[in-house]
Amino acid sequence: QKKLSVAIDGPAAAGKSTVAKIIAEDYSYIYIDTGAMYRALTFKALQEGIDLKDEKAVADILSKMKIELHPSKDGQLVMINGENVSDVIRTNEVTNNVSFVAMHSLVREEMLKRQRQLAIEGGVVMDGRDIGTHVLPNAELKIFLRASVEERAKRRHEENVKKGFSSNYEQLKQEIANRDKLDSEREVAPLKKAEDAIEIDTTALSIQDVVRKIEDYLEERL
Ligand code: C5P
Fold first, then answer.
1. What backbone torsions phi and psi does residue 68 show, to the nearest 5 degrees?
2. Roughly how many angstroms between the first and final C-alpha of the chain, as a whole number?
3. Residue 210 alpha carbon to ligand 1 centre in Å
4. How many Cβ atoms are within 10 Å of 45's Cβ, its own excluded?
5. What is the DSSP-derived secondary structure letter of residue 46?
6. Which of 20, 60, 114, 192 is deepest in the core (most CB within 10 A)?
7. How far does the centroid of ligand 1 lie from the alpha carbon of residue 205, in Å?
8. 42: which DSSP letter?
9. Averaged pLDDT for residues 186-190
10. Tens digit of pLDDT for each residue in 125-173?
11. Ligand 1 atom closest to 179 (CA)
């Protein structure tokens, strides 16, 4: 059977990683969370106390970082030079700074190289913002997930509450909207639906509905 490359893009908190993980598992494909790579770099840059606007300094940190993504029982393990950073890359501080790191072209060039390398043998589900447009322009299946900002903030809020984290819906909504704006308006590889991507509005759909739709498209291409 063919091993396809599946690109899943969309705005923040649209459910990309949730569905990508399930699809990867169903087909024994590799799941690659490219957002986690930008988050890992942001975490490291904050830790080193450098100015995130300093493109060269940020790119220099990346050049010294080995970023590994491994499947694990609760989704995936993210490691920087062998250190487990899976949780610390999800803090508000990282979330609210990652778009500033992700706008640098030196950073994106290096990430693109690494991401293509990870996908070289096919059989991957990769999620992000520029996968269909830049990283995997030849992916056999490209999906662009949308949902209203209210619905996305609500889902994230409920997730936080369930995990016992403090959470504020209005603030989440504002932060998600800000991040989308930064990611959509940057010059290099902005968040954008690829011409040949299939758009799915998940606002009124369950996770299982979205997975089923994408897997139907995948089956057509096998
Ligand atoms: O997917 P996630 O929300 O974890 O992504 C975090 C951030 O990483 C995004 O807001 C964006 O700034 C950046 N990103 C990107 N390109 C990708 C994936 C993520 O610029 N392919």
1. -120, 140
2. 7
3. 21
4. 25
5. H
6. 20
7. 23
8. H
9. 97
10. 999 999 999 999 999 999 999 999 999 999 999 998 998 988 999 999 9
11. 10
